[in-house]
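Help!! Second protein's tokens look totally different from the first
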Amino acid sequence: MGGVHLDSPVLIVCSYASPEAPKLFVWDERVQWLESIEVTKSALQQKMLDIESEKELFSKQKGYLDEELDYRKQSMDQAHKRILELEAMLFEALQQEEESKIEGLKMEGRLSESLTEGEREELRRAMDQWKRTVMCELRERDAQILRERMELLQLTQQRNKELEEFIEAQKRQIKELEEKCVQTTTVQQLSGQVSSVWIRPGGPERIPGTSSSPTEGLWVLCCQPIRAEPSCQLALKLSCYTFLECHCAVSQ
């Protein structure tokens, strides 16, 4: 009993059936507490799932209602526009009737006689509003066309810029290739003007007709490709004065 440590309150029941072998019945309250937590957790998770389902259903219903609202709004706008158009037509007919009366034509004046001054004023305002609506729609359409053309112009300019950069890169490559071809042609044309030079390995001996040894720099005028033994390592360089510089390192 002295070696048992419990972190939470427990109920220990001792039953001595016999003095030699006492029995201990331990009932830990932590078990019931953890079980209640698990039950509560499961209930909360189920509640959250139900809330998510209701949220999705509400979102769908809201989407349907928004679409229905937009449709009805468009229908009302079209109906209002149609009403304005009919009122404008009526006002125009009224104006034509008045002009016909002024010119002395014999026409029935039922329309002008059946309208009061207030109704005529309302028709005039409807006519003005209809004109403003039509002009607004025309301006919006023109603005949309202008935006589309500006976007197309920007895309075209960007494409032209990319093509110009590509052409410049191709020109640079062509120029480099032409320079290489000119250098190769110059070397080939001048390669037969002097005899070939033989460089042999073996010590710092002088090359006949020069003051240089095989280990020193040797300048020759536009010679053919220098021939050397396999043990020699050569490096040729074409300078601005069309000279070839030869460096020979004798391998031991």
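Here's the second one for comparison:
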Amino acid sequence: MGDFNAKVGQHGNEKAVSKHGLGIRNERGEQLVTWCDEHDLIIGNTCFEQPARRKWTWKQPGDNARNQIDFILVKERFRNAFLSAKSYPGADCYSDHIPVIAEFRLQLKNLKRRPRNIKLNLALLKSDLSLRQRYSVNVRNKFQLLGELEEPEDQWHQLKTAITEAATEEIPPTERSARQRWMTNEILEMIDKRRQAKNDKDAYETLHKQIRKKCDEAEEKWLNEKCKNMDLYGKTNLHMMYKNTEEIVGRKTCSSTRCLKAKNGNIIMEKDKILERWAEYIHELFDDNRKHDHNAMKRNFAGPPIMKDEVRAAIRKMKAGKATGPDGLAVEMIEALEEYGVEKLTSLLNEIYDTGEIPADISRSVFIALPKKPGATECELHHYTKAFDRVRHDEIMKDSTQIKIDGKDLRVIKNIYWEQTAAMRVEGETST
């Protein structure tokens, strides 16, 4: 850091300056030292014994004086990793300042790559009948191996495990698209030839022009096909129309700063502390100190069971292509099981309805905070509030009791609200 015209001199009472500085401290030097003390920084140039010619960093015009006014500042915690710092007056850098170079001993952290979420090509369950049949048989076989269970939590875990494992084994993942979606194998082969012709300037230029022409033709052809698809899907399939539009214009995202401000205003960089801050902030906003009222449990629990037709109709209304929840189940996986899936799901739902026991996965939600604008570091500047229910649950139960809602329904509603859990996901890490 230079051009402050700050001379810090030698060791004083501050921890920022050591005894190997040069010159006498001036007013700007006093300000720099105070600032370093406030931010736990040390001035590296003053920490190592060097001859005077290795300390000065600026020569006054006319060579009347030489001063040390350029510094390397390091956090106090890295003092032991700081090996040396000295100036190089013989360097040819066309400046009246001379470079200051420091040596560090660093041990880089071995970062663990988080496993990439594999997205299955669920559309094949509709288009490929043989794949659909293999998947259905695999799910049935897994159910036979696991046997019959009684508790709703165990039944749910059995259903989820059988479906997700069979899907992973039978359904191939979606192919990762090229950076340029219009790229063809012919163009890639020409690029390889151009790479091999680097030493032949004429051949290289010829191939380069041919590649540019092919790229323009391929891009125009790809765009025309996408526009035709959009026109077709606009009348039959809005989801595919929006998907084609996104492929053309690209998805616009508001990037996160990967840091967050704590309650006291300090910047937090560590993932675990960021997750703790989100949990603290959300708890402050949505905690209502509600009490668990057991009066509803004394009501009559007699009532009609859930019918297969109701489950079948509910599955039919669900839209395909939607993101899965924490359980990883997609509606396409259940639809592909046809009547077998309806039967298993109806049995599970009736068990939940009769006992009032809600499986933990069903009452758990995972939220992602999306910044409202680039560079957002405050919790308030993120989209998340719409994901949370701000209605007071105890008031819902009070009104539901007064209008004589069936005891079974009231118990399920109460357990869903009172036993629900939520977590925040930040850069692939989920809070507990």
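Reply: Different proteins will give different token patterns, so don't panic. Residues 367 and 424 are 5 Å apart (CA to CA).
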